[in-house]
Amino acid sequence: MPLAAVIGHPVAHSLSPALHNAAFAAGRLDWTYVAFDVAPGAAGAALDAMRTLGIGGLSVTMPHKEDVAAAVDELAPAAAALRSVNTVVRDGDRLVGHSTDGDGFVDWLGASAVPVAGAVVAVVGAGAAARSVVDALGRAGTDAIVVVNRTPGRAAAAAALAASARVGTADDIARADIVVNATSVGMGGDELPFDAGLLHEAQVVADLVYHPLETALLRTAAAAGCRVVDGLGMLVHQAVLQQVLWTGVRPDPIVLRAAADAELARRAVAA
Amino acid sequence: MPLAAVIGHPVAHSLSPALHNAAFAAGRLDWTYVAFDVAPGAAGAALDAMRTLGIGGLSVTMPHKEDVAAAVDELAPAAAALRSVNTVVRDGDRLVGHSTDGDGFVDWLGASAVPVAGAVVAVVGAGAAARSVVDALGRAGTDAIVVVNRTPGRAAAAAALAASARVGTADDIARADIVVNATSVGMGGDELPFDAGLLHEAQVVADLVYHPLETALLRTAAAAGCRVVDGLGMLVHQAVLQQVLWTGVRPDPIVLRAAADAELARRAVAA
Lengths: 271, 271
Description:
The first copy, chain A, is α/β, with parallel strands linked by helices. In chain A, 42% of the residues lie in helices and 19% in strands. In chain A, strand 7, helix 6 and strand 8 (144-148) form a beta-alpha-beta unit.
């Protein structure tokens, strides 16, 4: 009965147990997934715990992603580029760190029938989420990636992750085929991460925020005629990639999405 | 979503996950129970892991019971007497070691309507299981406990655990109200732990072996007219006491027993 778990702090409200357990059940895998609240600074001890207890796989969330990247035995390419790990995989006695967020986002665009190859993508933001998206888009055949951020230094660091990426300005949002909000603006509120007047109907607008699921940005973009892609799909598809890494079996993303929707609905009723 | 787990080596065939998860489900408790294979010598590291990950409770089995007793912050009385821990409970930042095996056995006798108060009990064997039974019977109002074992020195050490206990001989088996096989003789085979000609129909015969559930001893004792008490009930009732310690909620032993029977039946079909 192998165990997988998310480590984070706080972690009580993580959707990951609902997603992963639904996928394990649907695939008739004898795995269980739980959440461990691990204190800041204890990521290395959590990896020791993983070794001692033979835990089969870990998801890693705030504030441990960088500490875990420093503590695993080996980093897969995306995690090495980002110096950040969201997935730990056991390879015999070795622990290997991966980062599935960016590839999960690219898979979600694909599942949404959004063409990535040849596209010009504006990524708004330069934090960890933005970095993972830039890195993955850079490997996905985009024509150009433009990083738009208030702090130019951080934008340059994010753009350095992909050969096709550069730092841009708000005007680049208007010229992009795909616009990605990779800031946290819009989380739990009605703020917009940039001037929505820049959007037009030929564009796809993706938000990485999924609380609320329909952000003010997506609502405004839809009203402007854009195709919109919500933030929950990235969570779903990065989890799909985690399960492939842990179990070798690819779960159906529909199962994880349904579990995520059900859990969010349950919480909305409870709140 | 609190986690409890058994640590042992080997542990893959432990019945504990089936018992505990059935009880959590029946009680609508948001707990999950898994098995961790922890290498010999790593019990201290497993307790560190429990602290780091915030694991809610541990069951401890071979070969870790003594090492855990040495590594917890505090020992409850039975565990202190036995220098052996089968249950670790979180009390804030402190880990407290308990031993529920003996009390589980006494509870199982009670659930089987076997009067313990005032009884003369012969305990055959002097290992860890025998010691836990002697300790618990000594607190349960028995009139006398007689420890019968091939190695007298170990018998004396076990008898020292209860004021009412002494070392005895095979003849004491014939004189006892309750006879307990606390050796492993009969496990997976047809051997008898002592001369069954000593038994007579006024006696209760309890076997701690539960694989097979109907041991050669219990079959022979039943044929001699004795009341018989199988070994699975001790496993069930010690698990009930573990859940009380971890969650504060007392599960129905019937639920755990049904889960144990179902799991054993499932394995018999699979074998």
